[in-house]
Amino acid sequence: xxxxxxxxxxxxVGGGHAGLQVAxxxxxxxxxxxVTVVVDDPHPPYQRPPLSKDYLGGKDAAPLPLRxxxxxxxxxxxxxxxxxxxxxxxxxxxxxxxTDKEVPYAHLVLATGATNRxxxxxGGELDGVHGLRTLADAQRLGAALVPARxxxxxxxxxxxxxxAAVARARGLEVTVLEFxxxxxxxxxxxVTGDWFARAHLESGIDLRLxxxxxxxxxxxxxxxxxxxxxxxxxxxxxxxGIGVVANTALAEQAGLEVDNGIVVDASLRTSDPAxxxxxxxxxxxxxxxxxxxxxxxVQNATDxxxxxxxxxxxxxxxxxxxxWFWSQQGPWKLQIAGLHRTGDDTVxxxxxxxxxxxxxxxxxxxxxxxxxxxxxxxxxxxxRLINGQVPLTPEQVADPRxxxxxxxxxxxxx
Length: 414
Description:
24% helix; 3 domains; eight-stranded mixed beta sheet; FAD/NAD(P)-binding domain; Enolase-like, domain 1; five-stranded parallel beta sheet; 11 helices; alpha/beta
């Protein structure tokens, strides 16, 4: 195995939102060393969130690129697509590649992302059972949708419901099985989860709550799904959206600490100060959750990437950016600022019957999260309110005369 002939610089493993943002920030902030990004996907880096929405819905004929075609060249970045990092030698500070090469590093950033959880029930390996995370997944699923008539979706999280809404808009019969009592149970308040359950049911989706999967039936190809209640649902196509697992194999092989992700400190350094981790694969101390967390969102990926680049450049502040999320489910855009927890008190603003409202979540009297449905102005105001720690009571929020937008401007934050 030969070592690439250049001085050790920054090496980023992963070419998603987090990986490219690390490289871009290093260059725009003046990093003078070499920057190499190793991407195991053969395609130029692309945006993943639209794959379950516009791409499968037929609005985008091609995946949206993450950067322009000359991004790497203009920023002096070695972009190595279709190449897999197979190991890390922390003593020699090199990354092994499947091309029989080694890349030396002074700083290594792991932006390895996550992988879909797979069905472990009988029949989970049948043809016609799909996951959705990569462009290749979306291309296979898009082709399979053309002849399909009856769809079963396993899991009522963001991906499952986004895909279910797309399939229903195409006129297909859609059944969603969710073992929990409400959709998006880990991500949103009961008020929001229950509202989305009703909305999807009224759109014609057969949403089955408290009902998991027992097995997939078929000879070679899936023909039906049998649920934990014994009900049998005929299916031409099954889409699995039961969460993801952080890609930690490289870190584990290198002897780095791993616990539901690659463990990092508040500066996003791993147990080896020369190695950082960001995005979906990183388990970090979240000041907003109050516990160690691993977040799966574009915002967290890009904000952590910027912070990791700043750490490499010598800054010493802790990562404390406010988490925010969004999901487009048919005609309903859900935007979340902050992190809801079970037991939070909730206050409604707006009218749920119109499909435009927000749920304000309070914990110990402080505003910690806001979930907005088709109210984008509320979302932007919420981010300023929470970021600025503006004193606000549930009674003020409940009073329609309270001008939250004006209050948020007093926080003096973007």
